[in-house]
Specification:
Structural class: mainly beta
Number of strands: 22
Distance between the termini: 29 Å
Oligomer: single chain
CATH topology: AttH-like fold
Helix content: under 10%
Number of helices: 1
CATH class: Mainly Beta
Strand content: over 45%
Number of domains: 1
Radius of gyration: 19 Å
Order of helices and strands: EEEEEEEEHEEEEEEEEEEEEEE
Amino acid sequence: MAIRLDPEDEYMHELGPEPNFNESMYFNAFDPTARMGGFFRLGNRANEGTGEMTICLYLPDGRVAFMFGRPHVTTNDAFDAAGMRFEVVEPFVELRIDYEGPVVHLSDPLEMADPRQAFTSNPHTDCAVHLVYRGTSAMFGGEPDQPTERSGEEFARGHYEQLGAASGTIEVGDERWELDGFGLRDHSWGPRYWQAPWYYRWLTGNVGADFGFMGSRVARRDGAGTRGGFVWDGTALHLCRDFKLRSTWEGDANYHRNIEAELITDDKTWVVRGSVLNLIPLRNRRRDPDDNELVTRISEGLTEWTLEDGRVGYGLSEYLDQIIEGQPVGLAE
């Protein structure tokens, strides 16, 4: 199976015929000096007439500034909706992130388990983000020349990722920060339902510009699923042939709190240990053809990573689970 990735893929793709066609771009970044960071996502679901906009800022004092929107979207011409805009300045080299709009201030981010209550019981304020995002690693991924997922279980026809450095300003209310940090970005296109995976684990981390990683575990309800990722050592991208992780859980809702992961390549195994510093649970709901409500939880953990040699980095641990009888299905991993 060959994988294609061209500079043109940084731009928008032709809108596919699938009702659930999605094209989305995502960025995360964290500044260890400022002790803050976050993630930003825009998704176009033009055949459904809607989009998905998410901004999540982990503030230095433990609060989270958050907003989610479903703007009216009927074309796949740009990433520009609900106050957020992504611009490609130079493919694979430089992009821009801009947001101007409201956010809700969450002193306890776990309140987002009940979004309606969280949005109505917490204060809202204005927010402005202006960041330049520059690539620091080689590219990972692309579009395969043949399908890799079964019909109805697609999550992305094309998908690529890159480590990067983010710099610029973030304003929340009357507070302002200069951000100079590192993170990871991705770009996906093709049919997508958030209920397609049984569960997944997606770990990203950076130790400055010279070391970073991504680990991915996608589980299927009736199969083994996939494991993979990469390690960037400052000069080369090492592809993982296996990825193993163990998680510890906290509270009645079982949110992940500590992680030990092995990124296994043909030549070496890297072990990283993660401690979740702050976590916000997000939710997606959809009705199936029999009108049953399907509930998916996506727990977004700002995570401090420690390597075996003692170096410390930061990133995100994203845990997606289908919720059955009130519990996430992936507790065994």
